[in-house]
């Protein structure tokens, strides 16, 4: 049988462990695909010499943004187009139920800086399946740095 001292010590240890847990202060990205909603703070940023990426770390339901700039833009409107590496364009794709979708033509995403963070807002836009153009989804949301 456990002694009272050991029980108190275990309870005290658990209390300290729970109270000292770091809170997750990362910003949430949230988006909607048809009637389904998603949100995550599990987002990765990559900044390279010629491109920057904002990617949700999920294989089933995720997003991918690629700007052909040395840093993330904090304002402006960018045409969604993955065909060329143009600094005025953004390559933007989503994964929905493990299928890849890209935006239809003439779609834009808006960059916004809020309190030193950047986010990208997408108005309702049609995306189509890359392998089956008859399969399309309506997407909108806010995609934010972690």
Helix content: 10-25%
Secondary-structure element order, as H and E?
Answer: HEEEEEEEEEEE
Task: Please outline the major beta sheet.
Answer: 5 strands, mixed, barrel
Shape, please?
A: globular
Quote the beta fraction: over 45%
Number of strands: 11
Rg estimate, integer Å: 21 Å
Class from helix and strand fractions: mainly beta
Average pLDDT metric: 84
Distance between the termini: 48 Å
Q: Segments where pLDDT lies below 50 for 5+ residues?
A: 8-12, 17-24
Total of helices: 1
User: Biggest sheet: strands side by side, in what order?
Assistant: 6-7-8-10-9
Q: What's the structural domain tally?
A: 1
Q: Could you describe the 3D structure shown?
A:
This protein is mainly beta and 146 residues long. The chain has one domain. It contains 1 helix and 11 strands; from the N terminus they run αβββββββββββ. A 5-stranded mixed barrel has the order 6-7-8-10-9. Strand 1 and strand 2 form a beta hairpin. The longest helix is centred in the first third of the chain and has 16 residues. The radius of gyration is 21 Å and the shape is globular.
């Amino acid at each position: 049988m456990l002694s009272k001292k050991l029980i108190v010590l275990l309870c005290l240890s658990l209390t300290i462990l729970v109270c000292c847990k770091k809170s997750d202060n990362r910003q949430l990205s949230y988006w909607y695909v048809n009637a389904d909603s998603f949100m995550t703070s599990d987002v990765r940023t990559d900044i390279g010499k010629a491109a920057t990426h904002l990617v949700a770390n999920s294989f089933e339901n995720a997003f991918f943004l690629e700007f052909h700039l040395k840093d993330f833009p904090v304002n402006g409107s960018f045409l969604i187009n993955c065909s060329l590496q143009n600094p005025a364009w953004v390559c933007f794709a989503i994964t929905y139920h493990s299928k890849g979708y890209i935006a239809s033509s003439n779609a834009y995403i808006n960059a916004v800086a809020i309190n030193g963070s950047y986010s990208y807002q997408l108005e309702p836009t049609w995306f189509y399946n890359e392998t089956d153009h008859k399969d399309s989804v309506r997407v909108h949301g806010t995609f934010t740095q972690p």
